[in-house]
Amino acid sequence: MPAVQAAPADQQRLLDLQALDSKLDQLAHRRRTLPQLSEHTALETRAGQLRDLLVAATTAQSDLAREQRKAEADVDQVRSRAERDRKLLESGSAGARELSNLQSELESLAKRQSALEDVVLDVMERVESASARTAELTRQRDLAEADLTRVTAALSAEQASVDKDVAFARSQRGLLVAQLPADLLALYEKLRAQYGGIGAAAIKQRRCEGCRLELDISEVNEIRAAAPDAVLRHDSCRRILVRTADSGL
């Protein structure tokens, strides 16, 4: 004799419970595999990378701007020194030896100024390039963050829709569970955990809907002979077998 017995109506409810549990499993899988999830992850990564690149580019631009200011200050210092020497030279107050020194220094300062101005031009070009890179990275970051905001909203909407279906299915499940005998429910839950989420299956045209195997003649005869309240198990997949009007027995 089977260890568990249950009224045919309760066994039918077990199929309804299995249908709800299968739906809940499907909903859980759907929530884990929403297409927006992978897109959201990719956009999060992309936006983070762009933010990091932008910080580095902004820092580099700031460093170059500081370098430019220093180079321009060096040029101004040389110009000031040269201007002072020219005024002293033009004043006529310097002696012959000092005049010679001033002329020599002015020639040296002119070369120095030319070299420093070349440095300024080089730094200015690099500042311009860095500024363009910062602007482009800012544009890309803004686009990525806009896309991330859009996908986040779409993902939240999809998750909310799934969660709504889950909440409804769970409420229906609670109503069904309350109507089932404790021993039948315990057996079902144990088998469902052991056999891939399927604890009970209907017999349809002499086939187990759990494992999709056709029942052999000895199994059919055993089921025919079983009492209506006998809780049957399939020898092959060990799931609970539930007789229905479409069992073909």
**Number of spatially distinct domains:** 2
The shape is: rod-shaped
Named at the architecture level, the CATH assignment of the largest domain is Orthogonal Bundle
Radius of gyration: 42 Å
- H/E element order: HHHHEEHEE
Per CATH, what is the topology of the largest domain?
Helix Hairpins
Uncertain stretches: none
Strand ordering within the main sheet: 2-1-4-3
The averaged pLDDT comes out at: 91
Top-tier CATH class of the largest domain: Mainly Alpha
Largest sheet: 4 strands, mixed
The N- and C-terminal alpha carbons lie at a distance of: 20 Å
Number of helices: 5
Q: How much helix is in the residues?
A: over 70%
Alpha-beta content class: mainly alpha
Strand content: under 5%
Secondary structure tally: strands: 4
Quick take:
The chain is mainly alpha-helical and 249 residues long. Helices cover 75% and strands 5% of the residues.
Explain how this protein is built.
Keywords: Coiled coil. With 249 residues, this protein is mostly helical. It has 2 domains: 8-30 and 181-242, no CATH class; 34-177, Helix Hairpins (Orthogonal Bundle). Helices cover 75% and strands 5% of the residues. It is built from 5 helices and 4 strands; from the N terminus they run ααααββαββ. The chain has helices at residues 8-32, 35-91, 96-177, 182-194, 217-225; strands at residues 200-204, 207-208, 232-233, 240-242. Helix 1 (8-32) runs antiparallel to helix 3 (96-177) and helix 2 (35-91) runs antiparallel to helix 3 (96-177). The radius of gyration is 42 Å and the shape is rod-shaped. The model has no long low-confidence stretch (mean pLDDT 91).
